[in-house]
Write a structure and sequence with these properties.
The chain has 435 residues and is of the alpha/beta class. The protein has 12 helices and 15 strands. Helix 9 runs parallel beside helix 10. Bound molecules: beta-D-glucopyranuronic acid. Keywords: Lysosome.
Length: 435
């Protein structure tokens, strides 16, 4: 009928979006839904088809196939209407082009992905990842799938101007990838190989299992155009001798299963010691300068980052993504000059990283993914304050100061690099930095 917003039901449209006009809106809203009925329902005249509304507040007018069908006053309580005649009308229209049987639709997009010495190309054009790492995590819900949370997260990604995320550190629910396809968010799809740190993790048994997992991942996600690269692991002990053969095999196997996409793993090993890096298409490197290393020394970040990038590039001549960087930040902690754990420190650390990234952006650095999109729960350790607090949003999805900094940066990059002539298609897509 026109522009619409994605709106899971039940949920609060006041809370789910980032548009202030909806934050306090009270009044008429239009809710639209397309439903496919089983053929039998529409063909057998003895079957009554009843539309039941659980509740709609407070005055509702219901149209079915464009026909004003029912009005109801008063929220909270259910009401219903017999729509048998309406769905039969629709069937007649559909059968005029042939018999209709039960079906489901699978949207498939077409695009190409390629990697050069210094570029990541989507449809032949250089692409820069400006995005986040995520987790499937929220208060109470934990890892459980939740449409309301998912739509909120996508609204936040659009608000932020992000065009990409990595499914750290495991495959996410399929609905997440469906959303990425629709919203134009690019995905680095990661398998659950996190914590490969002991020599026995690189055994043949482990390797064979790893290959099977990659097959399963590719089989499930290969039809999502949003997926542009596979990540076979996060922060393995890739400097171990046995890691060389291991990653050669796992990466070669993944490429054989899907020859159309680049393959990587995310490293935190030293460039000179990493045995897996020769086999990846893109170097994805995590570093926590001024957090786990030289903590407190923000002034060293640019130097360290520059050295990191140059060392990796001169060794491998492959495009590089800064796949993690960040700082623990307790929302509401303020300190100036900045000290660790304050919102000011997170901002200052990001600023220094961005200066370092901008030095190499457009040369061979092809992306940056902040750690992390939102605070998330972990087991308790002396390094964690009720979980990991490196989110730019809190676990309740409210922005810390750094979120505004990142938003300005991502939209600036999006406006520099977005494809021209991309007309907005609907309200939910209109803000997508990718299309
Ligand atoms: C990185 C890991 C990530 C952690 C992060 C951190 O890849 O899973 O959450 O460190 O310590 O090394 O915050």
């Amino acid at each position: 009928s026109g522009p619409t917003l994605d709106m899971p039901v039940p949920s609060s449209f006041n809370d789910i979006g980032q548009d202030w006009r909806l934050r306090h809106f009270v009044g008429w809203v239009w809710y639209e839904r397309e439903v496919t009925l089983p053929e039998r329902w529409t063909q057998d005249p003895r079957i009554r088809v009843v539309l039941r509304i659980g509740s709609a507040h407070s005055y509702a007018i219901v149209w079915v196939n464009g026909i004003n069908t029912l009005e109801h006053e008063g929220g909270y309580l259910p009401f219903e209407v017999d729509i048998s005649s309406l769905v039969q009308v629709r069937l007649t229209a559909q059968t005029s082009v042939g018999p209709v049987s039960d079906f489901y639709t699978l949207p498939v997009g077409i695009r190409t992905v390629a990697v050069t010495e210094s570029q990541f190309l989507i449809n032949g054009k250089p692409f820069y990842f400006h995005g986040v790492n995520k987790h499937e995590d929220a208060d109470i819900r934990g890892k459980g799938f939740d449409w309301t949370l998912l739509v909120k997260d996508f609204n936040l990604l659009l608000w932020l101007g992000a065009n990409a995320f990595r499914t750290s550190h495991y495959p996410y629910a399929e609905e997440v990838l469906q959303m990425c396809d629709r919203y134009g968010i690019v995905v680095i799809d990661e398998c659950p190989a996190v914590g490969l740190v002991l020599p026995q993790h690189f055994s043949n048994m482990s390797m064979n299992h790893h290959m099977r997992v990659m097959e399963e991942l590719v089989r499930r996600d290969k039809n999502h155009p949003a997926v542009v690269m596979w990540s076979v692991a996060n922060e393995p002990a890739s400097s171990l001798e046995s890691a060389g053969y291991y990653f050669k095999m796992v990466i070669t196997h993944t490429k054989a299963v899907d020859p159309s996409r680049p393959v990587t793993f995310v490293t935190n090993s030293n460039y000179a010691a990493d045995k897996g890096a020769p086999y990846v298409d893109v170097i994805c490197v995590n570093s926590y300068y001024s957090w786990y290393h030289d903590y407190g020394h923000l002034e060293l970040i640019q130097l360290q980052l520059g050295t990191q990038f140059e060392n990796w590039y001169k060794t491998y001549h492959k495009p590089i993504i800064q796949s993690e960087y960040g700082a623990e930040t307790i929302v509401g902690f303020h300190q100036d000059p900045p000290l660790m754990f304050s919102e000011e420190y997170q901002k200052a650390l990001l600023e220094q990283y961005h200066l370092g990234l901008d030095e190499k952006r457009g040369k061979y650095v092809v992306g940056e993914l902040i750690w992390n999109f939102a605070d998330f729960m972990t087991n308790q350790t002396p390094q964690r304050v009720l979980g990991n607090k490196k989110g730019i949003f809190t676990r309740q999805r409210q922005p810390k100061a750094a979120a505004f900094l990142l938003r300005e940066r991502y939209w600036k990059i999006a406006n520099e690099t977005r494809y021209p002539h991309s007309a907005a298609r609907s309200q939910c897509l209109e803000n997508s930095p990718l299309i």
